[in-house]
Every structure is written in C-alpha cells, then in structure tokens.
Amino acid sequence: MLPEKLSNGLCSLNPHVDRLCMVAEMTISANGKLSGYKFYPAVMHSHARLTYTQVADMLEGGEVAEQYQQVFPHLQTLQSLYLTLDELRAERGAIAFETLETQFIFNEQRKIERIVPRGRNQAHKIIEECMIMANVAAAKFVIKNKGEVLYRVHEAPSEQKLTQVKEFLAERGITMGGGLEPTPADYQAVMEQVQGRTDAELIQVMLLRSMRQASYTPDNEGHFGLALEAYSHFTSPIRRYPDLILHRVIRYLLTKEHNDNKEKWTQDGGYNYQIEDLDLLGEECSNTERRADEATRDVSDWLKCEFMQDHVGDTFTAVVASVTSFGLFVRLDELFIDGLVHISSLGSDYYQYDPSRQRLIGESSGQIYQIGDAVSVKVAAVNLDDRQIDLIMIGDEGKIRRRNRAGKPLTARERANLEGAKAAKSDSSAKDKSTRGATKPKKSGSKSKAAGKSKSAPKRAKASDKPGKSIKRPSKRTSTAGKARRK
Question: Are the C-beta atoms of 391 and 339 separated by less than 8 Å?
C-alpha cells in the first residue's frame, strides 16, 4: 500500500478535484456481452465520494440525501448493469464460494473492542462486476494489439486433487460432472446442490482445497474460477504492481497505434516489456502477494490473541473449521476467532488423521471430528509469541494425556519443546546403540570416541502452514510472435 498521504490524497479520487486516470470505456449489450472497448488517458472530476453502505441503502429504497440527488440516477444505471452481468456470470458457470470475512472494531485505546462479520452488499457486487469487465477488456486489448503483459491465471485443479474430492463427494451421495476435466459450472452445480445441508461448509472447504492458487504469468491460460478465457488486473480494490505494469503496456500500445515507436518506452510512461522480464516479474509478484497475505494473517492472529487474553477460562460454542494431523482448529461462534484443540488434549483416546476426508478418528472410541462439527470448548491458554490460542473440549479437562507441572494443558511452545526433546533423545539413543554395535574392542587404556550429537528438534507445524507448494511450470507461449522472440 502507498503511504496514507498518497493513498488518501494525491492518488485518491477525492470529490470535486481533478485527477489523472486511465479510462476503460466499454460498450456492453443488453444481454451483458462486451461488444466494444477503448482505452485512453484522461482527467476525471468526481462529484461524490460514497461508501458501500450508503449506496446499498439508497438502492434498496432508503432515503437519498439532497447532495446525492444528482448522482443517484447513475447509481440506478449501474445497478441495472450489475443485474445483467450477474445473470451472465451464472450462465458461464463462474464459481461463487461463500466465505466469512470479519472486521475489527477498535476502542479509543486502539485495542479490539469486538469482532464482527463483514457482509457483502449489492454495492460491493456492483463494483466487483465492473472491475471484472474492465480487467477482461484490458486483457483483450493487449492480445488484440499483440502486446505482452502479466495475466491473472487460475489453472484448473490437478488430477490428484480432483480424484480426492470426487471420492469425498461420492461418499456423501454427490456426483460432480466433467470427469477429470470439470468446468467451473460443474463446481458451481455442486455448490448449489449442497445448499441447506448440514455438511455444506465441509463440502465447500473440500472444493476450495482442490483448487490451485491464482498467480501472475505472461502465459494466458485463463481464469478457471471466473470461467474466463483471458483475465488481467487493470484495476483492483487494492492497487497492485501488476496493475501498473498493465497500464504501462496499454500506454505503449496506444502510442504505437499512432506512430512507429522504435523505443521500449514512451514519454507518457508507456513501456514495452520483454517476455523474459515478465517471467521474472510474474514470479516476484506472485510470491510478494503470498508474503503480504501471510503478514496480514500474522498481524490479525496477534491482535486476536491479545483480545483473547481476557477470555482465558471462558467457554464458547464453536464449529470445527480445519482438521490437521496435530489437532483441530475450531472457530468460536460469538467471536469468529480460530483456536487449536491439540490432539493430545482430546480425552484419553488416540486419534488417527485421515487427510483425504479431513477428519480425526478415535482408535478406541470411534469418535470422529470433521469440518463443520459443532463443539463446546474452553480457552485454556493464549500464547502471543506463537500467535496461538489453545482450547480444550468441554468434558475433556480431566482426560488430557500430557500435562505440565501446573496441571494445565501444554501450550504450543511447551508441546514443541517436549516433542523436540523426545525426538533428540530417541535419535541420541539410536546413535549410541549403533556406535556400540559397530565399534571393535579397543586395547586397555584407549579412549572411546564420544557418541554423535543429537539432531535438532523438528519444527512444529503452524496454523498458517498449507499443504503443497507452487511448482514453477515451463513457460508455454501460444502466440507465434512470442515463440519467435524466445528463440
């Protein structure tokens, strides 16, 4: 993000002031199809600065303030456009996952006062559809003018992931069409099929985990989730560097239309990127995006832990949000905060992890924990250093297999130290036996060699860890011009 003085000042579309901009002017037919587009630099003059809540209230029949009477007809036109685009989105089969987002409400001391769910109203959806249409038009413009740019690519799921999710769905009597090459519409059909089911959240999570992460690349391979053949980032809610790259390319192509420019750059900021540059930039932008997401989650987790320090010992109803080999992450119903129920605190039973079905199964009791299960938990401990909230199931307080000296459930750090110490002891013991078995008897008076040092303790898995890593694919060029340049 830019510094606040820039993001809310010089680079912000403040009302009643002139601002330089790049315009995407699009012609959209009555059935929502993009029939024409053009791009050009311009100066815009905003007539009002409205919030999403204000716009939604006005469009839903609320009172329209006098200062907004002039812009209200334009909002109604946008609403009509959105309804048409939304129908087209459903026709092409774009996937619409319902995810819960939360918002921190801070008090005067800059501490969290409460955490509330943040819903998406129609105003959010209007802006989203307009942005998607502009991004599609920009990608088409670059392709038409034989330019090179970073595309926002979302590949289809891998065969392995598809096989796993199809087996999971089959166990619940659900069939996904498309074989090993399903379309976004096949995914969306499953989403619509499970609406109202008690395991709907679990099924959505499994569908999400079967999909790949979106990335930036100069190879246009389409966007699976949005069901689009070409997609770039001309604009987004938060300005991204790939947006700036695309703006530079558009400026270069616009200049090229009017004169035979031999340079890689233009006087108004245009630039002609080479494919080799875009390969590196795509990888860097994708990695930076993931680091930014991790940093955001890290800060959010710290704030939640600070907030939960005042709730140690309190009990809450919750829902299992994630299952791992070391325990359950459950989401507290009232606070929308996730905490860990470590596997060592699940009573006196031992649990086996089933990764394909995302569940824990008790060896003796047969007790099963899976995503979507309703549970009751108590806050056992909060560790700010580990960004960890430790929970225990109600009823399991006296059945925990491992305790510390104070009789409390082990914290995340104590568990890591304990597991590391056991691993080191086991490794050292194994080496001692190996050394004794392999060493020949020595003459009296000779000194025996010391046993090897124990290995360091393995790192404990964190809540933010995700299975799998992105694999860099060989770059594939679809255009003849691109291939020639590579050679």
Answer: yes
